[in-house]
Amino acid sequence: MSYLRSFTPAEEGTAGTVVVFPQSGAGCLRLRALAPALPSGLRLLGVQLPGREDRLQDPPASGLSEVVDHLSAELRELPSHRPPAFLGLSLGAIIAFEVARRLESEGVAPRSLLVAAARSPEYWRDFPAADPPLAELTALLPPAVRGSGLADYALATMRADLRLMADYRVPSAPLTGTPLRSVSGRHDDIVTTEQMSGWQERSTDYRGHHMIDADHHHLMDQEVLIGLLSDAAFETAPGGAVRR
């Protein structure tokens, strides 16, 4: 099954296309509610990993390379006259980064990469991705989910996503054809600005780090996502379009 979901008509891509890579444990179908509020002409695509939402019956990917293979193949089929921008949220930023690396190597680099609330790649060198402690995983869930009936489902999906990183190797070379920016929440106590500092080494065209008035979970809220999507598409200062 396809790894991409479209939430706006293809012909509305006149202002550009943004591909959203969700955080661990999450699907992308929530993006459907954002589409009516997006700037005119902006095309919105979301990445849907197996094992969640409309892919609940699909077995989890065997590793990060499998995800990168599938996504790169699908993204190569998009119109090449206006490459898409990537927005990676938390763990989704690492997937977006690796897909950008693959596409660069094939001569079809994305237009830009915006990473949000995401530890930089070198963090994953020592992360216990195979079996993180339950308390550590639970702390990553939004407060409203932790005590709900969705908690077990979300934790299982998150654990499967983190296992993708078990054999991750930090690349030695930066992106060379993809501008990269990073953004964090001022009140984020899960991913700190210091843990994101390594992103400046991950592109020869690094365009800076910005902070917005949000915590880790609020970065995934509809209003904040609309701002981040606009920022990714039009390369304004991250958070500048967020109405808070």
UniProtKB/TrEMBL annotation:
Q: Which family does it belong to?
A: Belongs to the thioesterase family.
Family annotation (InterPro entries): AB_hydrolase_fold, TEII, Thioesterase
**Which Gene3D superfamilies does the protein's record reference?**
alpha/beta hydrolase
PANTHER family recorded: S-ACYL FATTY ACID SYNTHASE THIOESTERASE, MEDIUM CHAIN (PTHR11487:SF0), THIOESTERASE (PTHR11487)
Q: Which domain of life is it from?
A: Bacteria
Q: Name one Pfam family in it.
A: Thioesterase
Q: Which GO terms describe its biological process?
A: lipid biosynthetic process
All residue ranges annotated as the Thioesterase domain in the record: 17-224
Quote the protein name from its UniProt record. Answer: Thioesterase
